[in-house]
Amino acid sequence: APIEALILKSGGTIETSTEVEAVRLVDDRPQLHWRKAGSSARSKSGTFDQVVIAVPAGPLTDLVLGNQNIAKGDRIIDREQSLSQVRRLRSVPIPVIDIYLKRKLPGFPAENIGLTNAKYGLSVVDIAQLWDADFDGKTALVIAASDGESLPGHDFDAQAWFMMQELQRYYPDIDIGKEWGDPDCDVDWDKTYARSNADYGLFLNDVGSWDWMPATAYPETLPNIAFAGDLCRGNVDMATIEGAVESGVQAAAAVQRFNAATNGGTKRGKTIELVKHKTYGNTALRAAKIALMPFAYLAKGWTLLNPSAANEKQIRDLGNVLQSEHASLLPLQYAVDWWTTAYWFWNAALSKDEGDTPDGASNHTDDEFIGLGAAMLMVLGEFASYATEKCQKGSVSVDCENTAKPGDALAGLARLAGQFAQGLMGDEDTSAPDPAKPYRRRWHPKR
């Protein structure tokens, strides 16, 4: 692994299959006690200049609160009492099944799908359409139960079969057989694998859990200890790999600041800082919702009035995204939804609140917001680019020889205008993107 190789090259050591049993502060320096997992030998100990603790909620509670062998005053909790709240944090296992099929399912979307009103909080994704690996043209599904605690059965094999049956309820074209391992079905059982993840719980950021989550650094009370993981406070504010990575960057920045403070202000390497999240502001998002709402409600009404129009071999919509089971209520619901959105759109437009002032627990003041004007110019640029592309491919019945160049000019002009409008919002590089640089995903929490 690249990170492992870099650590070893820099003279570091890596201890695998090792349990950290305790962290104590001796003369204001963190001291760790550890031993090999499953070993009955006496634990080893060592004192370090700086420590980053990146563990799940349960082990974190044990390390923060300490044990009876640690004298009072040497525990982490003695230096930062707010960390006592970490005991409130919860983690739950998310059962997952990797289902490899013997054929390709027709009409299965490539996106991650949350099955509305499904039992066990089931979601599914076809990794064969997302990964570069060779799946021999066949479908490979990953289904996860976010509400795994509701699964019936005394053992996980039985629970996994309930998950398979619930998936078939939404996609009847899948033949899963009569029982787990049935050879006369669509499932390739030799490759299919189910895991309960009982030992790998996912952190739950429950309502109100922000006040219990640890910060990545406490410079006043724990200057040489930092915390990382998806349970730490950050801009992402949800249990995802993006949140864990952001906390790691912030912990590294804390280590760098502490190291500089102890070395006369001299920093090692370049300053570590987060890349700002780039996201659409409140005004642009609400304007987009107003523009797209008619299509969403018309599509919903069409599916309710034409139930036979859906192909039986497609995914069934057994739930209701728009919270109304009757087509007659859609106009009323649309009117209420439209006026509510319009109110908040004008509220954001008149107050210039694009999200700079955080309306939640997490801090979003370092985000870059794309305003309504810039967003509209970007959309115009995309429309012009799309029209030009279709024209050049002969998809539209126009004189492409006379319109291709003007279309290119319009697309380029609109894009430049959008970039310029974004540039007015802050210090931003408006130059053309470097094709050699990989695309960076920008994540932003839902409000």
Name the poorly predicted regions. Answer: 319-324, 356-362, 395-404, 424-447
Structural class: alpha+beta
| Helix share, percent | 25-40%
Helices, by number, come to 9
SSE ordering? HEEEEHHEEEEEHEEEEHEHHEHH
Distance between the amino and carboxyl termini: 36 Å
Give the quaternary arrangement of the chains.
single chain
Mean pLDDT level = 81
Gyration radius, in Å: 27 Å
Total number of β-strand segments? 15
- Categorize the overall geometry: globular
Taken as a percent bin, the fraction of beta residues is 5-15%
Major sheet attributes: 5 strands, antiparallel
Kindly report the spatial arrangement of strands forming the biggest sheet.
Answer: 7-8-9-6-10
Please tell me about this protein's structure.
- It is a single chain.
- By secondary structure, the protein is of the alpha+beta class.
- About 35% of the residues lie in helices and about 15% in strands.
- The protein has helices at about 1-10, 55-65, 75-80, 155-170, 240-260, 280-305, 330-350, 370-390, 400-425; strands at about 20-25, 30-35, 45, 50-55, 90, 95-100, 115, 120-125, 140-145, 195, 200-205, 215-220, 220-225, 280, 370.
- It starts with a helix and ends in a 24-residue tail after the last helix.
- It has a 5-stranded antiparallel sheet with strand order 7-8-9-6-10, with helices on one face.
- Helix 6 (about 280-305) runs antiparallel to helix 7.
- Strand 1 (about 20-25) and strand 2 form a beta hairpin.
